[in-house]
Design brief:
There is one protein chain. By secondary structure, the chain is an alpha/beta fold. It has a single domain, classed as Ribonuclease H-like superfamily/Ribonuclease H (Nucleotidyltransferase, domain 5), CATH 3.30.420.10. It is about 55% helix and about 20% strand. The protein contains five helices and five strands; from the N terminus they run βββαβαβααα. The longest helix is centred in the C-terminal third of the chain and has 38 residues. The chain is globular, with a radius of gyration of 19 Å.
């Protein structure tokens, strides 16, 4: 059983969501956002995001953290700010000694929806379906964070199956190469 914290970094609203389970069988624990008002100094907003994520980690005790990778933005200032938000999120996860995994927005959409260019509402609807929720998680920042956690379960499960298969192959090869000496 694994507990995963998904985080969708944002300079005003950082979404987070925690799910628990294994491979493709998981359930929602909790989700929400950390809001950092745009009128505050940017350094104060970073501190608010950091402490908010740190509190979520302390309270919900995840094993792993799934964070959206940096992507190319047309506005350089926006890209730099998002990079700084990602930095404080990664710092909080690292300080808590969580396993950290980063996924591109396209891979998350491909994994959750089946289409790498899916729209926000399609991601929200699939998150609702996959977690058996009555309504789509709001706001979309929290829904995106849950999609990141779901993405990690799918990819971690595949990786575990590959490692298990490799171990079986190596074991069978090592037992086949042993010879009895008369």
């Amino acid at each position: 059983m694994m507990r995963v914290l998904g985080i969708d970094p944002g300079s005003e609203t950082t979404g987070w969501g925690v799910i628990e389970g294994e491979a493709r069988r998981y359930a929602l624990i909790e989700y929400g956002t950390v809001k950092a008002p745009p009128r505050e100094r940017f350094s104060s907003r970073l501190l608010k995001i950091y402490t908010g994520i740190e509190e979520v980690i302390a309270r919900l005790k995840p094993d792993a953290c799934s964070v959206e990778e940096a992507f190319y933005a047309t506005n350089v200032k926006v890209a730099l700010k998002l990079g700084q938000v990602r930095g404080v999120v990664l710092l909080a996860a690292e300080r808590a000694k969580l396993e950290i995994h980063e996924y591109s927005p396209r891979l998350v959409k491909q994994t959750v929806v089946g289409y790498g260019n899916a729209e926000k509402h399609q991601v929200q609807e699939m998150v609702r379906v996959l977690l058996s929720l009555r309504s789509v998680p709001e706001p979309h920042d929290a829904s995106d964070a849950l999609a990141l956690a779901i993405c990690h379960f799918h990819h971690a499960g595949a990786k575990a199956r590959i490692l298990e298969s490799d171990a079986r192959v190596k074991l069978s090869q090592s037992s086949a190469t042993r010879r009895r000496v008369p």
